[in-house]
Amino acid sequence: MILATTLLTTFLVWLGFTLIFTGIGSLFRRLWGMPQHATLDWLIDFWVGWSLSVAMLQIWHLFYRVNGYTLVVLALLAMFGFRGIVGRLRTGITSRFSLRHLAITVTTGAFAMLIANTAMQAFVGNDFALYHQQMVQWINAYPIVPGLANLHGRFGFNNSFFLYVALTNATPLGQIGTHIAGSLLVFQLLLVAIHCIYQMLWKKSTASWVFAGTFLLVLI
Fold first, then answer.
1. For residues 16 and 136, what is the distance between their CA atoms, to the nearest angstrom?
2. What angle do CA 107, 218, 176 make, to 5 degrees?
3. pLDDT digits (tens, 9 = 90+) for 36-92
4. How many Cβ atoms are within 10 Å of 12's Cβ, its own excluded?
5. pLDDT value, residue 67
6. What is the pTM of this model?
7. pLDDT at 85
8. pLDDT tens across 88-109, in order?
9. In angstroms, how far apart are the furthest CA atoms of the chain?
10. Where does residue 214 rank: exposed (0-12), middle (13-18), buried (19+ CB within 10 A)?
11. Contact at 8 Å (CB) between 179 and 120?
């Protein structure tokens, strides 16, 4: 029961951040005048939105700490991109659903449970305890602190990924960012890899699909 609740919670948090980043990416796509017509657009929008969100967090953190208000601002921005997402999702849902699609869905779900279960394990890396977790807590507690590296040299690395982890800590569930942040990105890479393999096997087996599908699986 505990495992099922944990997995469900992980999936719901993944879904929430996926909607936020994809909404921001979709908004950027529309403002840039780029067409939206394929499944790959939805997958790319996530990564574009994630990158833009990290860039905005760097500016935000100059003046304010990363907390729930930050999450609300990003969610409001994402709402302007929801129109494009809903349209594409409606098209995908109403399209013909075959046994092939069912097999892909089941396979994706199995890998998602594996990723989520792995993400719930305790972190054992030295750097995590040495400065990763502490840096994330500084970001959640204060705006950027001049001279913070005087306390520890590694606090001056300015790793933008920590801003993203701090954002995932800003949910009502509290300090779960270390389990959510990386696993969400791995899951999104998995979705892109599965899409590439699908295109390679059943659509058009071009060199780009073969390269992308193969190396994304190796990366994951």
1. 21
2. 70
3. 656 667 788 899 999 999 999 999 999 999 999 999 999 999 988 877 556 555 555
4. 11
5. 93
6. 0.84
7. 55
8. 555 555 555 567 777 778 888 8
9. 60
10. middle
11. yes
Two tokens, residue 95: 């399209």
Q: What is the dihedral of CA 58, 59, 63, 67, to 10 degrees?
A: -50
CA distance 11 to 180: 9
- Residue recorded with tokens 């951040």: 17
How many Cβ atoms sit within 10 Å of the Cβ of residue 78? 22
Encode 199-211 in three state secondary structure: HHHHHCCCHHHHH
Nearest Cα residue to 52 out of 141, 163, 157: 163
Q: Tokens for 115, please give them.
A: 């990723």
Does residue 208 contact residue 66 with C-beta atoms inside 8 Å? no
The secondary structure of the chain, three-state, reads: CHHHHHHHHHHHHHHHHHHHHHHHHHHHHHHHCCCCCCHHHHHHHHHHHHHHHHHHHHHHCCCCCCCHHHHHHHHHHHHCCHHHHHHHHHHHHHCCCCHHHHHHHHHHHHHHHHHHHHHCCCCCCHHHHHHHHHHHHHHHHCCCCCCHHHCCHHHHCCCHHHHHHHHHCCCCCCCCHHHHHHHHHHHHHHHHHHHHHHHHHHHCCCHHHHHHHHHHHHHC
